[in-house]
Design a protein that fits this description.
alpha+beta, Immunoglobulin-like, four-stranded antiparallel beta sheet, three-stranded antiparallel beta sheet, rod-shaped
Length: 143
């Protein structure tokens, strides 16, 4: 077989430049994709319990505890429809819209049918649909 001496292959320098350009382009694409993932997954559920109030009459099985929750995080979150008061599961009032707290805002979350008594300490625990626990301990009014 006869080889043509007049035809030359791609020079090693040009081949190296093309290889480097392709590598840089792929790395930029991967960095942009990873950056988008990072911003999606770094949104956090952060909260602050602003206040707790006890509604109804002491000793009544139908009285409520209202927790004012402020969302200090970067993502909205939704409170699960059940909460614990002194380890007993209770119902949280409202539909999903009423239990969803947007980033930077606050909402009243009402725990129903607690049956609290004057002067007693109550340990409350709300849970978001993502699993974040919001614990708080408060004393019912003395009278």
């Amino acid at each position: 077989m006869k080889m043509l001496k007049s035809r030359k292959a791609l020079s090693p320098v040009v081949a190296s430049i093309i290889l480097i350009a392709v590598t840089v382009a792929v790395s930029i694409a991967v960095a942009a994709w990873m950056g988008a993932l990072t911003f999606t997954f770094t949104k956090t559920e952060q909260y602050n319990v602003v206040s707790v109030s006890f509604g109804g009459t002491s000793g009544s099985g139908s009285n409520n505890i209202t927790m004012r929750i402020q969302n200090t995080g970067t993502a909205s979150f939704t409170i699960d429809p059940s909460a614990k008061v002194n380890g007993v599961v209770k119902t949280v009032y409202g539909d999903v819209t009423a239990r969803t707290i947007a980033a930077g805002s606050s909402a009243n979350i009402v725990i129903q049918n607690v049956g609290w008594s004057n002067g007693q300490q109550y340990s409350m625990e709300l849970i978001t649909t993502q699993g974040t626990k919001i614990p708080y301990v408060a004393n019912a009014p003395a009278t």
